[in-house]
Amino acid sequence: IARQNLEVKKEKKAFAAKRAPALSKAMMAAPLSAGATVQSSVMPNSHGLAVQDRIAIAPMPVIIDNPVNIGNKIVGQDEFSKIEDNNIKIVKSEPVSTLSVDVDTASYSFVRRMLNNGVLPQKNAVRVEELINYFNYDYKIPNDAAKPFEPTVAIYDSPWNVNNKLIHIGVKGHNIDKSEKPKSNLVFLIDTSGSMNSQDKLPLLKKSLSMLVNTLSAEDTISIVAYAGSAGTVLEPTSAKDKNKIISAMDRLRSGGSTSGGAGIKLAYNLAQQNFDEKAVNRVILATDGDFNVGITNHDELQDFIERKRDTGIFLSILGFGQGNYHDNLMQKLAQNGNGNAAYIDSLNEARKVLVDEAGSTLFTIAKDVKIQVEFNPNMVSEYRLIGYETRALKREDFNNDKVDAAEIGAGHSVTAIYEITPVNAKTMVDDLRYQTSDVEKKKLELSDNSEYAYLKMRYKLPKEDVSKLITRPITAADFKTMDNLSGDIKFAAAVAGFGQKLRGGKYIGKFSYDDIIKIANSAKGNDDFGYRSEFVNLVRTAKAISVPEKIEPVIIQPEVIENKVILDKPIPVKPMAPMPEQEYHDSKTHQESLKKRVLEEVKAIEDKVEQEQLKPIGMEDKFGFDDIMPPMPGEEEIAPIEIKDKEVKMNQ
Questions:
Q1: Per-residue pLDDT tens for 82-103?
Q2: Helical (H) or strand (E) element with 100
Q3: What is the pTM assigned to this prediction?
């Protein structure tokens, strides 16, 4: 028995010595959940080793991380394309800016979900233009369908840089009357793979599409394709008047298996082609978390396939679902190259907004390949910067090339682009060149109402046409307005633009604060029928609270006596630890949890082995060999092992 005791003790010592560094790193790096206390079942002590329950802790401080609430959600595995903020451009070097408009709103919904979970979103999840374009703006609408929109322009002082101004360019597509609404040939392409097995994925997906089905008319046609390890037709083309049949077909879907998204896309386009109607809206609606892991998995190959199919007149819409394994990068590629749009559905309220309230802008395209080009006047503007649209930039020569694809605008959809400019004679972000005398000897300009800051050009194609049309407009000093005289829509868009930049690090907005954003947004909420603008203000407040951790007072562990033995002979201060950087926490969270789980399983295995061999009960320090691994710290007194005769009580403790 003595030899057995010795062997087990050696085994425990070796295990503790081997695992101590890894366990210390895992336990100390991961923040505890909100409200965590020192009574946690497993915690690191001052030596970085796991100890169970505080009765076994020697009188040394225990470090507790600043609590971070992540809403019990998996974070850190969502995939977004890397985005670098647009740089400041010198007008004399690069006077022209060209871009495709962006009607997607997926970024705003995802950012909202992360903030509601108590976590700041990763930078690449924040696309500022999608935050701005999430909201509806009451821009001027033309009455002629042949001219689907006309630009609304304003110039005003930048709220975050007193030397700069903002140029606001907004367009809104005309609405389609119900009597003029074209028929729809829709194919629902539904991801039923194993990764969709959570309440915020397949179950929410089915409820969302059911809401859309209930808005369709008898002339509309619905087909359903599902894909997991392979793809199959769930419902052949069916009239939307058979709503029960369509909804029942979706209700029978279950998740499981791998994800052959490429095969599903091919089958869906084939079904749409078989039922193609030149007078109807022909569209594939892909609902997925974007995790394609079998079949065509190469993103470029999928993109090429989508590009070829868009020329057939079949458009693509993408609805993203879920968190923790959300592949936004792939879905953005497909939507941008498939004459379509992308939305992220995180709740039934968002599903109602996208598929019911804004069904016209989601389904009915009124203009395609919409491009914007702005030429800045070097006599009026020295620098400019486009806010957002990093993934939508085009080459200057692409503007007049009708073969170059750009985004679509749906019925009633509003799109906004904002430039920050530095006027001539104002303090610039980039130093003047020494040897260009025209920059050294600037003359102060006298502005007149027709002094041009820039020249705006827009190109678009009507849905059934292949030749673009041109809209032009000078941007002059007459477009300038003070902040007090701006419309609520333009002020609110400025607040959202500031918020998006702040979430991305605030590289160009100086000391512009969350409180500044809230002040502007509150003054510009206007007629907020559905509460989206009020919700935005609350999100800003949430981001502010997360960004500035509350001061945490030290926790005091009081002395405790068990069976007339003092376990802690004096109060122990518990020092708060500064939180990890958000991105580092996201990236390491899953690994840490896995490591902790594995270590605790091995600790439990040793405990079970001791129990099975019916060895003599030993104290906690002796059990794990702590006393042999490291001597007491200076000023620390060794505590005798707890001796409890009742073995059951001992094991429970």
A1: 999 999 999 999 999 999 998 8
A2: strand 96-100
A3: 0.71
